[in-house]
Design brief:
This protein has 5 domains: about 260 residues, TIM Barrel; about 70 residues; about 90 residues; about 60 residues, Immunoglobulin-like (Sandwich), CATH 2.60.40; about 140 residues, Jelly Rolls (Sandwich), CATH 2.60.120.260. Helix content is about 25%, strand content about 30%. The protein has 16 helices and 44 strands. Strands 1-2-3-13-15-17-18-19 form an 8-stranded parallel β-barrel, surrounded by 6 helices. It has a 6-stranded antiparallel beta sheet with strand order 20-25-26-29-27-28.
């Protein structure tokens, strides 16, 4: 904890903690020392805090195999270089995802329970046990009377023969087989191909540690590692492990084998068995994967960081067996994976919670603008995150053709972007907010109960084994939206978390009517009521049950409330493309480049603010006395060749510039007879993006719905003095300190995205075809054919000089 004065003093220049990091994709492996060094230096220069190395598929000729001595030596070299530059260095414990590879045979691979279901007549049958696929293992067989039996009995198996006795009527036979899912590691590097491991088997985890994780950790050096990392769980269909019968009986107190068929057939009494089966899988994942990796990593003094959601069915509380909790996904009024992680972090006492951010930002690669990055980052902050891990930075040879290499599904967020000169300011602003949101403790007065029992019992839906996604489907979307739009915040809570959450500390919890509740949870909820808390079961009446919020809610504005030793602060963010206004009875300090106090706070589109209650007197705003267009004439220079132009100037309107990615310098002269006023260069608000402008974008691909007046970022000089850079509303720069009476030289450097150039480079498609022909299909370049959709580059508005009657500050 800290005081308001402590935090205020450090806010503008915070310590390094909280700097954004980048996932650093190493393709191939095809890497060279000099390029590793160059990219690390570029990251450090931009103000990034470190890297998370991820080893993925090839994009060109492979120079070394994954896991080879040469490869591991380069891992160590990169770790040493990062340390020398003051960068954190994290490493993913494997290639691609999920964990696995050539060291995982059928005995350690992810498995799925497979059913053969067929009708037979009344005669006896002897059916040989046949392994249809390598690694198949017979589990059990059952027979039931009739064409749609409500119950079954297990049939004997001797000498490899299933002996189905004679019956008096047509029957149905069920044969259960444990089958290797066949899922191979996705996006694997060369030398890392193979089956995904069984996340319910400690032997499988230990083998992966011995063959992959330990060599990587030792190569990097434990003393140089910030953490070791496991990506999201994507072991599709992995719902079985050879030890399940013994484990189920030990954990649940009754036998599974004789009732196994109830996982497939609903007998009317099978719900509790399905709940118990799902719970057993969750516990096996915790005991035999999470605990094994965390114990191994802690033995080396390195934190184990994980995105613990997906398949196998990780609960929210499963996170407690790791060291660092991470989520992904944006959507502050929904329940993204970030909320799964941040709720666990708050419940189990982790002050820092990270997120994989910008995963599908404004697809395809190089389309993302700094405004997109800022807007999506704010969404993560609003979901409880306070450490950003960008997705990401593709390693790319400097001497490669065209734009070089990109990851198939993400923004290419590196120094090949023309807007990179503004990246330092962007990352500095995100660093300040990340650090700030690590101070104090979150105030989240509402709990939403996770209906895990109903999720375990639900065999339908597109991903029945993905507990997080089934839960998100079972909780009405109106619940989180109603809470957040009321200006309040919430944590998810599950059946394990109630053991560490005092019911007296829960003023309100939402448990939709009809939710299946274990007996211990029922008792805990009764204790909430006894302590004066409210249990809301009618979600339609939720809004009427909520307490009032400290900040009056406004459309599109999310609020994060954190408590310090001697006060509170609020992070507020406008998540929409139109300005919003917050009004307060008492003044609020607003922390930014300046610290001001006011009763009315304007939030421009996609703008955030830090607000602190204060007793300071409210200053009188200085009204703008004059706003006049900069008359010109204007010139523009591409590659030092200057020519006159008329504003607005959109590059895509000129066929010769339509595919240009880079920087253009605009110049004019300003005559300023009086410079005693405060002078702002204002480019205007921008324009709303039509909602159907990029219909190909999937729902998880974030983009800001605003066309800026400068596409897409700019730096401003007056009389050769750098006055500032901008990429987001308000599109203004203060010229006051650089202005002088008389003629002033104005220069504006405008940077666009690399998407224009991406549209004319065939080399990426050729590279994908070449590596697919040689190594098999490991990726598809996402949406690359849409590189030029709705591009707007250049100086798209006539700027104005706005004068205030006096300087403020």
């Amino acid at each position: 904890m800290a005081t308001v004065d402590d935090v205020r003093r450090q806010f503008r220049n915070p310590p390094p903690e909280g700097r954004p990091m980048m996932r650093w994709w190493w393709f191939g492996p095809s890497i060279e020392r000099d390029e590793l060094d160059r990219e690390l230096r570029a990251m450090a220069a931009a103000g990034l805090g470190g890297v998370e190395v991820s080893f993925v598929y090839p994009m060109g000729p492979v120079t070394t195999r994954f896991g080879s001595p040469e490869f591991l030596e380069l891992v160590g070299h990169a770790a040493r270089t990062a340390r020398s530059l003051g960068l954190r260095f994290d490493v993913t414990l494997g290639s691609g995802w999920s964990y696995g590879g050539p060291h995982i045979g059928p005995e350690l691979a992810a498995r799925q329970l497979h059913w053969d279901r067929r009708e037979i007549g009344a005669a006896a049958y002897d059916v040989p046990v046949v392994a249809a696929w390598p690694g198949d293992e017979f589990v059990a067989a059952f027979v039931g009377d009739g064409s749609a039996p409500s119950s079954y009995v297990e049939v004997p198996v001797r000498d490899g023969i299933i002996h189905v006795p004679a019956g008096g009527q047509p029957r149905e036979v069920l044969i259960a087989t444990s089958r290797v899912t066949g899922q191979n590691v996705k996006r694997a590097a060369v030398g890392a191909e193979g089956l995904t491991l069984d996340h319910y088997s400690a032997a499988a985890a230990e083998e992966h540690i011995r063959r992959v994780a330990e060599p990587l950790l030792l190569a990097a050096g434990a003393e140089r590692l910030g953490s070791v990392f496991c990506d999201s769980l994507e072991v599709y269909g992995g719902d079985w492990t050879p030890a399940i019968f013994d484990e189920f009986a030990k954990r649940r107190g009754y036998e599974l084998r004789s009732r196994l068929y109830e996982l497939l057939v609903d007998t009317g009494d099978s719900k509790q068995l399905r709940i118990d089966f799902g719970r057993t899988l969750s516990e096996l994942y915790e005991d035999n994967f999470l605990k094994v990796f965390q114990h191994w990593a802690s033995g080396h003094g390195v934190p184990f960081r994980i995105q613990s959601y997906g398949e196998p069915p990780a609960t929210m509380s499963s996170y407690r067996f790791a060291d660092n909790f991470e989520g992904e996904g944006w959507g502050w009024t929904r329940i993204p994976e970030t909320r799964w992680a941040s709720s666990a972090a708050n419940t189990y006492g982790r002050s820092v919670v990270s997120a994989e951010v910008w995963t599908w930002v404004h697809s395809p690669s190089f389309r993302a603008t700094p405004l997109d990055l800022q807007g999506e980052a704010h969404e993560h902050f609003l979901s409880g995150v306070n450490q950003l891990i960008g997705h990401g930075w593709p390693y790319s040879p400097s001497n490669g053709p065209g734009l070089g290499w990109i990851f198939y599904a993400a923004g290419a967020l590196d120094d090949r972007n023309p807007w990179w000169p503004t990246a330092t300011d962007l990352f500095a602003s995100l660093h300040r907010l990340s650090w700030l949101l690590q101070q104090g403790t979150p105030v989240r007065p509402i709990k939403i109960y996770i209906p895990a029992s109903d999720a375990y019992a639900d065999p339908v839906g597109p991903e029945p084994g993905n507990l997080y996604r089934v839960v998100r489907r079972l909780i009405p979307e109106s619940v989180p939206r109603t809470i957040r739009e009321a200006g309040l915040d919430y944590d998810l809570i599950d059946d394990d978390a109630i053991t560490v959450v005092d019911p007296a500390d829960v003023p309100l919890i939402v448990v939709p009517d009809g939710t299946t509740l274990p007996l211990e949870t029922q008792h805990w909820l009764e204790a909430v009521r006894t302590s004066g808390g409210t249990v809301v079961t009618d979600v339609d009446a939720l809004a009427d049950q909520l307490p009032s919020a400290p900040i009056t809610p406004q459309q599109d504005v999310g609020v994060v409330h954190r408590r310090l030793d001697d006060g509170d602060f609020y992070f507020v963010a406008n998540t929409g493309p139109e300005p919003r206004e917050l009004t307060f009875d008492e003044p609020m300090e607003r922390w930014s480049a300046e610290i001001t106090a006011a009763n009315v706070i304007t939030l421009h589109p996609y703008e955030s603010a830090v607000l602190v209650p204060t007793t300071s007197s409210t200053p009188t705003a200085s009204p703008a006395q004059l706003a006049e267009p900069v008359p010109g004439p204007w010139t523009v220079a591409f590659d030092n060749e200057s020519r006159p132009i008329t504003l607005p100037h959109r590059w895509e309107d000129d066929p010769e510039l339509a595919t240009y990615s880079g920087t253009a310098t605009y110049r004019t002269e300003l005559e300023l007879p009086d410079t005693t006023d405060r002078l702002l260069l204002d480019f205007g608000p921008g324009e709303l993006v039509p909602p159907d402008s990029e219909p190909y974008l999937p729902p998880n691909s974030y983009r800001a719905m605003l066309t800026p007046p400068v596409g897409v970022a700019a730096e401003v000089w007056l009389n050769d003095t750098h006055c500032g850079s901008f990429w987001a509303p308000p599109y203004q720069v203060d010229l006051t300190d650089a202005a002088r009476p008389g003629i002033n030289a104005l220069r504006i450097d405008v940077h666009n995205t690399a998407a224009n150039a991406l549209s004319v480079y065939q080399h990426l498609i050729d590279a994908a075809d070449e590596v697919t022909a040689r190594f098999g299909r490991r990726f598809d370049l996402q949406h690359i054919e849409h590189a030029t959709d709705y591009l707007n580059s250049g100086l798209l508005a006539v700027p104005k000089i706005v004068r205030s009657s006096k300087r403020t500050g």
